Amino acid sequence: MGAVSQFMETNYKHFNARETLAAAKAWKALLDKGGKMFITLAGAMSSAELGISLGQMIRAGKVHAISCTAANLEEDLFNLFDNHSYEVVPNWRELTAEMERDLRDRGFNRVTDTCIPETVMLKAEATLLDIWKQADKNGTRKFMCEYFFDMLDRPEIKQHFAIPAEHSWVLAAKEMQVPIFSPGFEDSTLANKFTAMVMDGRLSSHSLIKSGTEIMHVLAEWYMAQADAGTPVGFFQIGGGIAGDFPICTVPMLIQDLHKDDTPFWAYFCQISDAVTSYGGYSGANPSEKITWYKLDVDTPRFMINSDATIVAPLIFAYVMDW
């Protein structure tokens, strides 16, 4: 057991700390019995550089499928290509409206303490436009992550890396053939670019990007393949929103809509969220609520960690990796 794991064993005895250690132990137990882990990324995890630890988890075979917002998908590559141009604002809580305007006028978009330069978005747009135009010409339709993989396949792209390649979780997923499911592509910067290109005629159709229901179809087939192989699948959720709610609904869809009554429930559930339990909110809902929706069962190991995912997730990853 590594130093970080030993520290957690010694000190994480109560409250969110105890829940964090218990969730990490249960993740390891799931893998030890031949299970797989499905992880979801909401919030701004890529801009927070979670890829430094998540990339290692993927390459070590500890993560087997990923659902993420389209923003997390693109922001991992923005970070890969232009991290050296980012600016960090330590006193972000003290920024005035005028200071925010100055950041905007200097070409930055702020995410908490991290300012992303608009130039990196323009670089990605230029490369993707070429790829999208070729797909348009060939009548090809793909998922957004597949177009990103095409971009990463270009031999000249490596010269643009601004950080070690192993710090990109998208690149790790591509190399390890870990499937990425990214619903709601329209809620992203590059989707705005794509829409503008269709509107001004540079691209002919929105259908170049496969739809969300098509993503659900592929995800359901992936889950059924695990079930047919007798492989239990856990669900590790960072934040809430579409990245988590979309994929977890695969199980109730298979049971209730496709009438596959023998579909196993998710075999593990953990959520890291700073959302409080509220009236009707998904992000702060108690895990036990998911039992009523055919997502989890009574005996499913369930954990809810109310904390900052940028702190907690790398600690859990460290424990699973025996660091």
Automatic annotation (TrEMBL):
The text of the family note is:
Belongs to the deoxyhypusine synthase family.
Q: Which terms in the Gene Ontology molecular function aspect does this entry carry?
A: deoxyhypusine synthase activity
Q: Per its UniProt record, what PANTHER family does this chain match?
A: DEOXYHYPUSINE SYNTHASE
Pfam families membership: DS (PF01916)
Q: Signal peptide location in the record?
A: none
Per UniProt, the keywords (alphabetical) are: NAD
Q: Per the record, GO CC terms?
A: cytoplasm
InterPro entries, sorted: Deoxyhypusine_synthase, Deoxyhypusine_synthase_sf, DHS-like_NAD/FAD-binding_dom
According to UniProt, the name of this protein is Putative deoxyhypusine synthase-like protein
